[in-house]
Amino acid sequence: MPNVTLEERKARYEASADYDTRIVICAGTGCMANGSMKVYARFREELQARGLRVKVALEEEKADYALAETGCQGFCQMGPLVTLQPRGILYCRVTAEDVPEIVEQTLMRGDIVERLLYTKPDSGEVVRHAKNVPFYARQQRMMLEKCGTIDVKDLNEYIAKGGYFQARRALREMTDQEICRELLASGLRGRGGGGFPTGRKWELTRIHENETKYVICNGDEGDPGAFMDRCVMEGNPHAVLEGMLIAAKAVNATQGYIYVRMEYPLAVQRLKIAIAAARGAGILGKHIFGSSLHFDVNVMEGAGAFVCGEESALIASIEGKRGMPTLKPPFPAEKGLFGKPTDINNVETFATVPLVLGLGAAEYAKLGTENAKGTKTFALTGHVANTGLIEVPFGSTLREIVGEIGGGVMNDDGTLCGCDFKAVQIGGPSGGCLTQEQLDLPLDYDHLAGVGAMVGSGGLVVMNRNTCMVQIARFFMQFTQNESCGKCVVCREGTRQMLALLDDIIEGRATADTLGLLEELAHTVKLGSLCGLGKTAPNPVLSTLRYFKEEYLAHVVEKRCPTGNCEALASYKILPEKCKGCSLCAKKCPVEAISGEIRKPFVIDQEKCIKCGACVGSCKFAAVVKG
Amino acid sequence: MSKAAFATKFEQVCAILDKYERDPHRLIAILQEIQEAYAYLPEDIMTYVATALGVTPGAVFGVATFYSHFTLEPKGKYVIKVCDGTACHVKKSGDIIRLLETELGLNAKKKTSDDMLFTLETVACLGACGLAPVVVLNEDVYGAMTKEKTLALLQKIREEEAADA
Lengths: 627, 165
Hints:
The complex is a heterodimer. Chain A is of the alpha/beta class. The radius of gyration of chain A is 27 Å and the shape is globular. Chain A is 38% helix and 14% strand. Chain A folds into 5 domains: 16-137, Glutaredoxin; 163-364, 3-Layer(aba) Sandwich (Rossmann fold); 375-463, Ubiquitin-like (UB roll) (Roll), CATH 3.10.20.600; 469-556, Up-down Bundle (de novo design (two linked rop proteins)); 571-626, Alpha-Beta Plaits (2-Layer Sandwich), CATH 3.30.70. In chain A, helix 8 packs antiparallel against helix 9 (198-206), helix 8 (176-186) crosses helix 11 and helix 11 packs across helix 14 (347-359). The mean pLDDT of chain A is 92. In chain A, the strands form 6 sheets. Chain A has a 5-stranded mixed β-sheet with strand order 2-3-1-4-5, with helices on one face. A 5-stranded mixed β-sheet of chain A has the order 13-12-16-14-15. In chain A, strands 10-9-8-11 form a 4-stranded parallel β-sheet, sandwiched between helices. By secondary structure, chain B is of the alpha+beta class. Chain B contains 7 helices and 4 strands; from the N terminus they run ααααβααβββα. In chain B, strands 2-1-3-4 form a 4-stranded mixed β-sheet, with helices on one face. In chain B, a hairpin with a 2-residue loop joins strand 3 (135-137) and strand 4. The mean pLDDT of chain B is 91. Chains A and B meet through helix 2, strand 12, strand 16 and helix 18 of A and helix 2, helix 4, helix 5 and strand 4 of B.
């Protein structure tokens, strides 16, 4: 039905949206892993068994109830999430077994099932409505607004909520130059980590004349601890397509690619469904919206290489080659995919474009800080009460994000710690850590760069007091060393040597020179590497060295890990007041390092001890401790 | 290998090559599909792909060994992926990896058990950080894993296998 207008699609959707209650079920990766599709099926069965009419996506008949399968709603930890509209009641951790009760109590009688409501971890207060849950109340969900509320498979619903109207306006009423200018004026910067102004990137691609040009969407979200792009691709794929369509008009491209990492099968599936729907509606194809633009999009699945997040490596990968970065210039805007001018942006950037055009550049630029306009999504994870996907304006502070949206820092055993965090790792393996001192630092590109960190793609991993920062630095170094493509020597060998030095520190072999050598090497790798991967790989090391020097020194000089995480530096001892002298630990010890007289406290010979920890497990009186 | 078996083996790869119009630019997609069909990338098949696409076998092997998704050796019936992304890591995914290595007799070099039942892989991030630590068994995602839950999962598979045998 390519000739159906957006207005007609909107009207059709609205005509069928007449029902008693809409049951919104989160079908993001997190909730699906916890069984949300079983919940979905059970609702359908229960309602149909009662002879009630249930409508699912794309059905246009009227019904008593509507079931919607949405993308990630962000509050993954409390999933599966079920929201009942229009009342806005949010039920958390819903299982298929809870469904009959919800149907009977809430849908039939209008009562609330108290036990399924969200309970505030600090006060124990229960919250009925999603909008009052602190996790949501403190956010400003703009780009994510539709993600988690609309049915992912329903193109008409996206249109009914204002989708594709901006693309149509751009295609019909704006010139390519006007679009670039509008984007530049809005101050939108690339959300993938680099922070390059999107309008300028488009302009640079636009000015290179060529019959064939490409638009690529970078969905190779490789940073461990980040999942913003996954949620957008899964939850609002049409917004990504709309952004790409506007970009295609701005740079005069005819073909688009979305490169998605293979770890995101659901995102690939949802994008393919969205593309098929858009093609069917004439939103992709020839003469889109009656304009002269021909544009189509294909999805390409990655094959597991972090370096492919770098644009020139990603382009090589689409061309069927090893994903190795190339020297810039020439930039992709001049010579990109198959040697043609190519615009390449991140998923979140594309999904933000319709929002910018909708609000207008001036209005959008009112959000955020001076050099960082708009809102940014962050993946909030680690030792924090509420993990999930959040969106806040640039300039928000960690105190707001971790304390209020995140609900505070957790202990290892999952209880609320009631203290400030030790550090927050921001920007993944390219970023750095922030400490308590930076609790009130406004989060934006410039402020973070000033303290040796970066926004990156937006992963925020909260770490509590029991986390060893040397181990964290080693963790990231191991990651970048594994993922270094091997093309340039400083990155390939430098990361390997840095990892070896960190191993020396953790395993007690470090000498007085180790830290100096590590720092020197870090600067060399930063300066000498070819691409972003190598240039930023030393950041976690430099950042932890800067803020946790004491902890490094304890490892190197005292051969002690202050948090007790480094096995090789741990020492075991027997508490004489607790030891009953049963000799069980001595029997378990593989190297006969424990000795003593029966019924008298035993002792561990530190010289012989191999720190295997067997004694700790054997003691029935908790007398053996690691320190 | 009998002539017939040899022919069947190559029929599949030919169909895949035709589907992608023998376009060398689509090598990655071709290899992905071959791996799906054969469960790994057999050496003779890759050489054949190189000839069919008009590129050197080195180019095909280069791509196959560059990306972590590709495997040149057959994998076990059950592929267990333990996420060791940052969020999972700080929530002790390392303990789960060590437990599985001990239980299955595997290590950093040896990824597949001798009975070809299990392959253990660690992945950098599955993007399900809200559920950390995460374990994926074939296609199913298990969140908030502990050592106990991992052992129970393993036990379940072993019992199912014993019942089948």
